[in-house]
Amino acid sequence: MQPWELAAREAIRDLVARYNALGDRGHWDDLVALFAPNGEIHVPELGDFVGHEALRDFFTTAASGGGERKTPARVWHHTSTLVIDLEGQESAAAKCYYAVIAEGGLDHWGRYRDAYTRVGSTWLFARREVTVDGMVPGGWAALNLAKLS
User: Fold this and answer.
1) What does each of the 149 residues of the chain score in pLDDT, given as a tens digit?
2) Do 100 and 145 meet the contact criterion of CB atoms below 8 Å apart?
3) Angle CA(88)–CA(110)–CA(75) in degrees, nearest 5?
4) Distance between CA 100 and CA 89 in Å, rounded?
5) Quick one: 115 exposed, middle or buried, by C-beta within 10 A (0-12, 13-18, 19+)?
6) What are the Cα distances from residue 104, in Å, to 71, 124, 144, 147?
7) Distances (CA, A) of 106 to 6, 41, 142
8) What's 74's DSSP letter?
9) How far is 126 from 50, CA to CA, in rounded Å?
């Protein structure tokens, strides 16, 4: 393995961790900055959100459950089994599982499928697909996903 490959893998691991940490704390501007200017999120139930403005709107609306709250419910995202495929020194793809713990315990879980791009020396999300595979009936995601669709 070449040194640039090690550096890229570590930068991508850090990017994935920051996404969850910043989102869990409601740091929307810093979260949006993890995406390329034309970066996007795709949620099958909700559609595509492309560009920083649309991403910020998506995050704040999702955190408030479509309501007036400006900060997320108390949640903790956990990712595992991050598999990174480097496609050269400028792009990569990955997939991993996530689980979300809320104040009442496990709330929902699923998969992320990512495409990354390197802008200068920084790795950013080009695209993130968020699949919800399951949720606890009556939990935060079950109540709020319906409001967002």
Assistant:
1) 899 999 999 999 999 999 999 999 989 999 999 999 999 999 998 899 999 999 999 998 887 765 554 444 688 999 999 999 999 999 999 999 999 998 889 999 999 999 999 999 999 999 999 999 999 998 888 877 766 66
2) no
3) 105
4) 32
5) middle
6) 18, 32, 15, 20
7) 33, 23, 12
8) S
9) 10
- Residue 68's Cβ-count burial label (10 Å; 0-12, 13-18, 19+) is exposed
Q: Name the architecture of domain 3-148.
A: Roll (3.10)
Contact 134, 142 (CB under 8 A): no
Q: Which tokens is 40 given?
A: 């996007």
> Is the alpha carbon torsion for 4, 9, 13, 16 positive or negative?
positive
Amino acid at 83: V
Q: How many angstroms separate the CA atoms of 36 and 24, rounded?
A: 20
Sequence spans of domains, the chain: 3-148
pTM reported for the whole predicted model: 0.91
Q: Hey, what are 54's tokens? A: 């649309």
Find, among 18, 56, 20, 22, the residue nearest to 39 by Cα. 56
Instruction: Return the amino acid letter for 28.
Output: W
